[in-house]
Design goal:
The chain has 247 residues and is mostly helical. The chain has a single domain, classed as MetI-like fold (Orthogonal Bundle). It contains ten helices and no strands.
Length: 247
Amino acid sequence: MTPRRRRLIQWGSVAGVVTTWEAAVRGALLDPTFVPAPTAVARALATIGPTALGLLGETLGKTLVAYVLSVVLGVGVGLVVGSARHLQDVVSPFLVAAYAIPKILVLPWILLALGLGVAPAVAYGTLQGFFPICLLVMGGVKDLDRMPILVARAMGARPGQIYRKVILPAALPAVLAGMRLGLVFCLLGVLVVEMFGGIRGMGFLLASLATAFRAPELFAATALVSSLSVAGVLGLEALSRRLARWR
């Protein structure tokens, strides 16, 4: 299938869904109180656009800080634990157990310790993004062929050189997969804190619109956040294709 034909099918599918959605609302198959028509969502987007974009920028700033922290910590811990077998045997069960605990249970403690503001949103977003990145990187390093590492050691490579020139390039697919997943989790964590902590941002706006039963505005705000998330993941996908050459 050619790229042009693939894009036509993709955009045609989106247009078909939107058209069917509009027809279902106009034909009274869907209640516009809860599921507004796409045209109503578009009008609502024009109404709340300036306010929503400002709040989206604030949420994006918190998410980026949390994402950078989760990538640095997740990739670092994943590389170290995954490449040291004895350390992996000791630490891996604790990481898996911590990942299995619902992170929402930790949120009240974060709010209690850090109060209201940017800090709890960044901390909770980092916590959400750290574990998927760390576990994916750790698993990717664990499954690597050990022969190139042994050869590098035999040739006198220092530990830093082995990590930089052997382990990291070989584990790059796992690192990029973790980064894509971590971005979504970081955004989720920031939105949750904004919703339940009453902190200024898109999460607070979404909760306010839902409480006020303003469905068109709620759908419009949701579309903005979804577009941001999709754009970030697609950007990381493009980055992974570029880095494939370096690998």
